[in-house]
Amino acid sequence: MSDMDRKCSDSDCKKESCEGCEHNQNNMFEPVNLHSSIKKVIGVVSGKGGVGKSFVTAMTAVMFQRLGYKVGIMDADVTGPSIPKMFGLSKRAKGSKQGIIPENTSNNIKIMSVNLLLDQEDSPVIWRGPLLANMVKQFWTEVVWGELDYLFIDMPPGTGDVPLTVFQSIPLDGIIIVTSPQDLVSMIVKKAYNMAKQMNIPIVGLVENMSYVKCPDCGKEIKIFGESKLENIANELGIDVLGRIPIDTEIAKLVDQGEFEKFTCEYLKEASGKINTFFNIK
Ligand SMILES: Nc1ncnc2c1ncn2[C@@H]1O[C@H](COP(=O)(O)OP(=O)(O)OP(=O)(O)O)[C@@H](O)[C@H]1O
C-alpha cells in the first residue's frame, strides 16, 4: 500500500497539513518493512481505556481469519499489551536478517507486541511517550509481516501523544471506534472521531462492546450500563454501527485460558461483512 492511498476527497483542498493531498510535503509516514505486503491496515481505537478495544481487535481478526483472509494483529497498546496472552503466546519473538518475526497463533494469525520482546511478560513498560511511539513505529518498519490481507492495530487508548504519532507514521486505511453504552461515551467517541477526521483517516464504523449481559437462567438481556445511545451518536456523526457485543463470560474464560480463538459466537459476523464491503478486498 502506498502513502498516497490515503486520498483527500476534497478536490479544492489546499491545506498543507492535509495528509491526503499530493502537495503535502510534510508526510511523515514510515516505510513498511521491505518483506511486508499488507493490503489494508485498520486501527482499532477508543477514546478511553477499558472499553474492550483489545477484545474487539482480537475478535475481528479471528472473524477475518475464519473467512479465509491472511490476518495480523499489531498490539500498539504498548503500556497495556493484552493480545499475546489472549492467544496463549508467551515465547519471545525472534529476529532474522529481514527483521523481527511475528509469532503465530494456532490458526496462523500473526502477532507482534511489546510483550513478545520483553524478558518477562509481567515486566512493566515504564517509558515516556516518544519511546513508546518509536516502539510502535518499529512494529511497522522492522517487523516482517509477509503477505497480509488485513493488519489490525490495537491502538494505544485515548487521543494523546502516542496514538497521534501512530496516526502520523503508519498509513491507516481506516479506523474502527470501540465504545460502551455509557453516557460519557458519546463525548469520547466524538474525540476519536474528530482525531481521525483531522488526520483524514476514513472511519469504518462503531462497535459497541458490553452492550448487555444475558441472564443465564431466563435468557433476558440485562443492560447494565443502561440504554445504548449508539444509534444517536452514529446518526449525528454519519457513521455506521458495525455491531454490538454483549458481556460474554464464556469468552472471558477463554481469554483467561489464552484460548480466545476457540470462541464460537458470531457477534461480529455482520460487522465483518460491512468491513469487507468498506474495503472491497476479494
Ligand atoms: N464483551 C466482553 N465479554 C467478556 N469480557 C470482556 C468483553 N470485553 C472485554 N472483556 C474483558 O475485559 C477486560 C478489558 O478488555 P480489553 O483489554 O479488551 O480493554 P481495552 O479497551 O483494550 O483496555 P485498555 O485500552 O485499557 O488496554 C479484558 O479482560 C477482556 O477480556
UniProtKB/TrEMBL annotation:
It comes from the Bacteria. ATP binds at residues 47-54. Transmembrane segments: none annotated. One of its GO terms (molecular function) is ATP binding. Pfam families: ParA (PF10609). Keywords: ATP-binding, Hydrolase, Iron, Iron-sulfur, Metal-binding, Nucleotide-binding. InterPro entries: Mrp/NBP35_ATP-bd, NUBPL-like, P-loop_NTPase, YlxH/NBP35. GO terms for biological process: iron-sulfur cluster assembly. Binds and transfers iron-sulfur (Fe-S) clusters to target apoproteins. Can hydrolyze ATP. Homodimer. Belongs to the Mrp/NBP35 ATP-binding proteins family. This is Iron-sulfur cluster carrier protein. It comes from Anaerosacchariphilus polymeriproducens.
